[in-house]
Amino acid sequence: MAGGKRPTTALRVVGTAVRKVDATAKVTGVTRFADDLFLPRMLYAKLLRSPHPHARITRIDTSRAQAVAGVKAVLTGRDLPIPFGILPVSQDEHALARDKVRFVGDPVAGVAAVSEEIATAALDLIDVTYEPLRPITDAEDAVAHPEPRIHDYGDGGNIHKLVNLEFGDVDEGFAAADLVREDLLFFEGSTHLPMEQHAAVADWSPLPDGKLTLWSSTQTPHYVHRALAQVLELAPAKIRVVATPNGGGFGGKSDPFSHEIVVAKLAILTGRPVKITLTREEVFYCHRGRHPTLMWVKTGVKRDGAITAMHFKSLLDGGGYGSYGVASTYYTGALQTVTYDVPRYKFQGARAFTNKPPCGPKRGHGTPQPRFALEVHLDKIAEQLGMDPAELRLKHLVPPDSLTANWLKIGSMGLEQCIRKVIDGSGWTQKFRKLPPGQGIGLACSSYITGAGLPIYWNPMPHSGVQLKCDRGGGVTVFCGSTEIGQGSDSILALLAAEVLGLDPFDIAVVTGDTDLTPVDLGSYSSRVTLMTGNACIQAAERARDLIAQQAARKLQVPVERLAFADRRVFDVQDPARGLGFAEAVQAAEAAEGTIGTVGSYTPAASPGKYRGAGVGPSPAYSYSACVALVDVDPASGIVRVPKVWIAHDVGRSINATTVMGQIEGSVYMGLGEALMEEMAYRGNRNVVHKIPSLLEYKSPTTLEMCDVVTYVVEDPDPNGPFGAKECGQGPLLPVPPAVANAVYDAVGVRIDEVPITPEKVFKALRRKEKGEAPRFGPTAFPDIVWPDPIRVAPPWEGGDGKAVGPSDRRTVGQKTRPAGSKR
Amino acid sequence: MADAKVKLAFELNGEPVEVAFAPHKTLLEVLREDLGLTGTKHGCELGECGTCAVLVDGKPVLSCLVLGLACAGRHVKTVEGMAGGGTLHPLQDAFAELGAAQCGYCTPAFLLTAEALLLENPRPTRDEIKQALSGNLCRCTGYVKIYEAVELAAARLRGEDAKPAPESLYGWR
After folding, report:
1. Around A361, how many Cα atoms within 13 Å sit in the side-chain half-sphere?
2. Residues B95 and B76 in one domain
3. Are residues B44 and B18 in the same domain?
4. Do B74 and B95 belong to one domain?
5. Do A27 and B129 touch (CB under 8 A)?
């Protein structure tokens, strides 16, 4: 465990409830978000966006716009010819569309003017001639219509990506089952809806400096840095990206965006600072949110619920560009195996291009959809077997320190405790199938990664770096490329440095998210920050502590092993009165060693899976959650209310209790929104235009819809986490939608196999039930997709080595079947 | 577009101010762009999210829907006016203590709306807090810590020696 070499003092900071280091700035309105920056001579930029979902651009004439008084520059796709994209395999975006537009809202031209009003007016004077193409409205449409192609790359027609993975012979597993069940489910797309609209300010210092600075509300300054260098053909050393504190991210600010590149280019062209702040409507076009996902799942189980095999198919509606979509596709199939024993597993996933705003990573990235499907499916299986759904889950949990069928390495695993907490707390056994009509209770569980095992672009360097500087006065500054998006990442650095060095968190200054000042951290995504920056920070702090301890030992005439750091002192653990103040100790060290500065870094261990596709799913640690939801369903209207949710989350170890609670409650909130109301809806018959790009009409829970939350923090420390910590910012969202769906069934006996669970869907299902039809609302078919040959990988217990096996040598792999449900 | 500027006098955070601005500007724009008080935020500029709320004569208003010109002679309070004499307002302190401000973007509006509530009703029930804050959207917190912070601050404003409940900070055992 990182931090495990410390002297023997008990933890003083880790695990307490501390206010965040930036809390005062946030409650006083002092925090400067990107749109709060005003630079002298600043210009304002606006983007012209496509009114067509799919069209060729045959002509753009900007002359009338350029002639407007106050307009300083106009850009089109011709000015920014180099493509970009967050994934190396999907470099399919241009800052401004060149030949073609791919969704309503795709940026086509950019204007910089002395005021926002003039820039907006100038947009109307840009003449664009479009030749409309048939739009592809959704994933099924994309499967059915390979032409016209939205992109000229991918896995054929309008299919962006196809994945086919098989871990053991699932047919043999199904044959050995007592019950085989198939279900079809759909998870509607939803968006992040951060309260802060994206904003960016660019500034250019002319030659000989030739230096660009971009302040942006981005979760990933390192990737923006790379994208700017690529598209603008500038040396990375000539670009500084500063991630301003994000007014909410949730994954929506994780891609390099058109508007960031456009203001940078406009600043270079005009020699003046340029700001852009997207309107709320434009934020809906940036999107990169939850992929609408159709899912088919087939599972074989023994009478006691032990799974013999699982086959999962997903079809993702990707929108107009690649974004993180290849990773998202794999994620819809990666984590089915990390909660309950799945001895044999097959996954087929497809992502389609459609003419809508691109989908990407939203809180839970690609895993809330399959988790919804799996947990509802298991609820149905439990009912068919006559088992309590909690018992079914508890009997077949993945053991800690084990490998899954798809070669994911499980470390600590606190799901059993989580289930027991919510079962006991909610009074489950007295309520399940026993509540009066209209009231119901449902259970679901989940797991999430604590950071991705691999970086987005392949490289052997650390995922996170920290530099730490000790001041003569006893202060410490921690420098790290991490990005504060409200999750408390700045505070994690301060708390961990304070813990190791025996200081108060508020003695630590934190400098983050600035590519000139801070070492690379890959960004605030995939719940990686606490674990990765935390481990890097602990390493840097321990190195500083060791330097200081050596000199303190000399000065105090005490063996260095006996020195402890606490309460701003360095002292002999056998004679605590004998010691130095921390500042005094730093001075002694500085006198002997020179300036005290150290570095730390973190790289995840290699994953045991070695097959193509094994890069998505591995994580240093998996968090676990269990959720019970209580619902009231009005059969007359179909309206579902959720008065209360019980949630237990295995966070490994809580570093800041305050932040952990906030992340769990916030995850429940966002899960509730996806369960009941949030949807990115488009008018398929009216040009695929977004139906509701506003905060009023895109329904999200207000104080009046939010449920009561009973939170249990379970701590099952993971050897890879800083002091054992795992993630808590995304995982607790995942079990909420299926828990609500299962509770609705308990309440009124209808299955809503699709979120959001709107009144209309419940009402329709109730009508079907009355008429004696299948008491269900949900998808009815999964389209035929021509899958590539599967990549076959033998599970660990079938003698596999983590590598794919070819069809010819498949029989050479040991075929000894692990009995379903047995522990490995 | 190049409207002649108008001059306006009103009271801002307890002090008289005069400001010249283009007459079409909203109070939100006047505060942020002409007075440099960027503590007031915006989420939609259409009156949908509550993020831009400030107090005008003690009542929460959406500053994105109010013309600056409508504020002549009125008392405007923004988040910058909440802390006094180098000390946080009890609401600010409770929000910081409980983590009711995560990203902090919606926070100024929640604080001011809650302040207006507590001035009218020093002992609000949970439901009354929910009603009062129902026009403010927050995407980070799930509102739970915000309710708890308002309750904590209300108790302290009543002179009680209130502390956060352990389950609020650490969860249930």
Report:
1. 27
2. no
3. yes
4. no
5. no
CATH number at residue B63: 3.10.20.30
The model's pLDDT over A246-297, given as tens digits with 9 standing for 90+, comes to 999 999 999 999 999 999 999 999 999 999 999 999 999 999 999 999 999 9
Q: What is the DSSP string of A113-156?
A: ESSHHHHHHHHTT-EEEEEE-PPP-SHHHHHH---S-S-S-SSS
For A399, the 3-state DSSP assignment is coil
Which of B29, B170, B173 has the most A C-beta neighbours within 10 Å, making it the best mutation to test the interface with A? Answer: B170
Q: Is B26 on the interface with A (CB under 8 A)?
A: no
CA distance A559 to A553: 6
Q: How many domains does chain B have?
A: 2
User: Is B13 in the A-facing interface, judged by CB distances under 8 Å?
Assistant: no
Chain B residue numbers touching A30 (CB-CB < 8 A): 39
Q: Tell whether B40 lies on the interface with A, counting CB pairs under 8 A.
A: yes
Q: Is the pLDDT of residue A402 over 50?
A: yes
Of B1, B108, B144, the CB nearest to A29: B108
Task: Based on the fold, state whether residues A646 and A705 are members of the same structural domain.
Answer: yes
Centroid of chain to Cα A436: 38
Which one-letter amino acid corresponds to residue A346? K
* Distance between first and last Cα of chain A: 24
The reply to whether B1 falls in a domain is no
CATH of the domain at A105: 3.90.1170.50
A513: contact with B, CB 8 A cutoff? no
Other CB atoms within a 10 A radius of the CB of residue A785 amount to 17
CA–CA separation, A194 vs A679, rounded Å?
Answer: 15
Q: Are residues B54 and B107 in the same domain?
A: no
Give the range of the structural domain holding residue A478, as residue numbers without chain letter. Answer: 462-602
Mean pLDDT computed over A520-546? 98
The last residue of a domain, from among A602, A622, A649: A602
Type of residue found at A816: K
* Rounded Cα distance, B50 and B137, in Å: 6
Residues near A318 by Cβ (< 8 Å), separated by ≥ 6? A139, A160, A291, A325, A328, A351, A352, A353, A354, A358, A359
Instruction: Based on the fold, state whether residues A208 and A176 are members of the same structural domain.
Output: no
Beta partners for B77? B55
**Interval A709-741: pLDDT, tens:** 999 999 999 999 999 999 999 999 999 999 999
Helices then strands, counting H and E runs in chain B, come out as: 6, 5
Can you tell me the mean pLDDT for A814-824? 40
Burial annotation A421-456 (CB, 10 A radius, 16+ → b, else e) = bbbebbebeebbeebeeebbbbbbbbbbbbbbbbbb
What per-residue confidence (pLDDT) applies to A806? 77
The answer to whether residue B52 is domain-embedded is yes
Q: Which residues of A touch B44 (CB under 8 A)?
A: 280, 694-696
**Does pLDDT of A99 surpass 60?**
yes
Tokens of A739: 């828990």
- Nearest-by-CA chain A residue for B147: A703
Look at residue A600 and tell me whether its pLDDT is greater than 70. Answer: yes
Per-residue tokens: A381:
């299986």
What is the tally of structural domains in chain A?
A: 3
> Are residues A558 and A443 part of one domain?
no
Scored b (16 or more CB within 10 A) or e, A677-700 reads: bbbbebebeebbbbeebebeebbb
Confidence of residue A686 (pLDDT cuts 50, 70, 90): low
Whether residue A651 sits in one domain with residue A640: yes
Inform me whether the pLDDT recorded for A811 exceeds 70. Answer: no
For residue B62, the enclosing domain spans 6-81
- If asked whether residues A321 and A343 sit together in one domain, one would say yes
- Summarised one tens digit per residue, pLDDT across range A292-328 is 999 999 999 999 999 999 999 999 999 999 999 999 9
Look at residue A685 and tell me whether its pLDDT is greater than 70: no
Are B16 and B72 found together in one domain? yes
In angstroms, the separation between the Cα of residue B133 and the nearest Cα of chain A is 7
